[in-house]
Amino acid sequence: MPSHLPAVTQPVPTAPSGSSHDTTALLRGATASTYADTVRAVADDIALRLASVSQPFSGASRSELQGLVDAVDLDGPPSGTQAALREAADLYAQHAIWFHEPTYAAHLNCPVVLPAVGAETMLAAINTSVDTYDQSTVATLMERRLVEWTAGRIGFALPGDGGGDGDGGGADGIFTSGGTQSNFQALFLARERARRDGVRLEAMRILATGASHFSVAKSALLLGLPHDAVVEVGTDAEGRMSPDALGQTLVDIERTGDTVVAVVATAGTTDRGRIDPLVPIADLCDAVGTWLHVDAAYGCGLLVSPTRRHLLDGIERARSVTVDFHKSFFQPVSSSALIVREQPDLAPVAWHADYLNPAQESGEPTPDPNQVDKSLQTTRRFDALKLWVTLRALGADGVGALVDAVCDLAAAVHQDLAGDPDFRLVGGTDLSTVLFRYEPEGLDPERADALVPQVRRVLFDSGRALVAKTVIDGRPCLKLTLLNPDATLADIRGVLELVRSAAHGLLAGEALADTDEPPCRDVHPRLARGEGETR
What is the pTM of this model? Predict the structure, then answer.
């Protein structure tokens, strides 16, 4: 649909007489009414799109989109705010991927809750940076409160509670840009702890399964560890870390003279949505004194689940935990955090600069809580505001009900597929993923392999549904990642019917190429809609 932003009715602003720049460009008191009109116009346009969109993607080809992008002259004359926003809406919003559409089921992208979107508007306009207190004031205090809230949900002792296993007096943490940064910072902290204990970099090893997030291996590379520093631990048939395999790997590495500096358990693997057995893993880590990091980027929503919180039992014994609120807390990107069990563990991140967070001198009052001392970033958005408003608007149980909804939907889809003659389920899930293959009786397994990327591409090119593909136990399969609490079983059945139709069409096309007798096509050609369907 074309942009519904208002047409340009005023001349493009130019620098006023005697001024070297456009004094109407910045958000300030004098432009407050223009700000309100601008944001309202954009919001109205997006609202109309949300109300009218009928599929997650326009279906425009890569070459079509590249042509639209290349046609914009970024060095051309200014067009004014309204015209520029109209152009952006017709380019970006028109061809964006809409994660709220129930037929979007590809990756770990969630629709977002309205309170968080409202908070996003607030924080974008004020533009707080929460690196130092004198840039953020109450925003820093609100973020600190949310770190404590999250730590409490994990089960960590909080500052002032007299808890904590060491002398740190309780948990701490920092908001980050996402799970990758959180995992990187956790492994950096584990590396620094090992260095303080005299372990050489070349002797450091990190244990994780083959299903752990790629950021584990990438972090080891960036931390200067050896190319073989990440050692893969065996799993059970469902892809969960095997405690027996972990125990044996710990023994094997000790015999080599190397040192395990961290074990990474996953609470919600990307493909299967499986949760490693945290209690026995924690037992082994405690026995050998190694750092346990739990990557709960996907599974962190279970922290507020009214029915499934027990799946995270043992997470409170981790040394550090990654949470991604922009996955299963339904927050706009970005909103993530790293939570540590003991405050001193964050100390290696601290770096003082006189112009930013000077060291305290004798006689000075208690220093302000400058979070740059805990973060790998300096400038950071006040992304915590979105979660704050969400918890106040919906309540923790309300967010947890959304988490339960997507897990319940995945369970229903699994049950549906178990009785479908055309599809084969590839394992189960603890969360909200569905792995499957189009594999009706008589179809050669190698041909079924080849259909996986072809079917995904047909659906993507049509724009009608988005699914993902991955490889499990050496064989490609299709994947649904269900993170839309409003999606219904009927919606997902519709996606599966599109998968079936695409596969039928692809196979029929091959048969047509091999024979003079044209078979029934059973759809495909970009999943053309029936006579009564609209686009």
Answer: 0.92
